[in-house]
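User: Fold this one for me? It's GntR family transcriptional regulator.
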Amino acid sequence: MPDDQPATATGTSTNQTRRAYDLLRVMIRSGDVVVDQKLVEDTLIRSLGITRTAIREALQQLSEEGMVSRQRRSGTRLNRAVLQLPIDDILPWKASTRFSVIRTDYRTVQTTPTVAAKLQTTEDYVGLVEHCFFDDAVAVGVRIAYFRRSYAQPPVWQSCPSLADAFEAVYGSPLAEIRSVVDAGACDPATARMLGIPTGSPVLVREQVLVDRRDIAQEYTFSYYPAGTVSFPMTTVKVAEETRAPLSALRA
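Assistant: Here's what I get for GntR family transcriptional regulator.
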């Protein structure tokens, strides 16, 4: 088969399972399936157009991740939803009324070359504050922030409606820019204990530099989220006409 031709619709068993898993995750993430809702295999086969074997393998994978529970007589039900976090905020779009933030560490630490460069500071010591995020009493994230010691972090700030409001309340200047990088890694023992997951579990790591309107980098942060329970929704990017290469050039 030529390289530029798609594979057949049926595909291999592995491809079918991957497709089923991806589409089920989308259904859960988008809210098409709610917590405690039963996932009926026959319905999924008809709606997704995928074989029963692939559906079962995908559901088993979700079960191993703790996303669904499978019982022989009661079937498969959704245990928890995927928490959707804006890339430029730390509070979820659809948090439950029981979403809470607890400060778990607050101290002074020695500056490292990386922290000094990110904060553009020559100070030998910086402040460190750590928070743990809970949704329905379940830990869903841990955030560590480095900042200049001249600022004091309030013991409670989750009453602020957004990260921008909390930032301005602490640093006295509006938040102007967030430089973000999202990576994947294995969870360290200390963070794993806080999140209630095994050491080495996959986590999403969001590294951010928060800059105020005076162009001062005020915070350098790392946030850790269990990879199976949190997602960062896509944003729409429009490509200007002048940046598009002519189709004829791509075919040349």
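One thing worth pointing out: Residues 1-11 have pLDDT under 50 and may be disordered.
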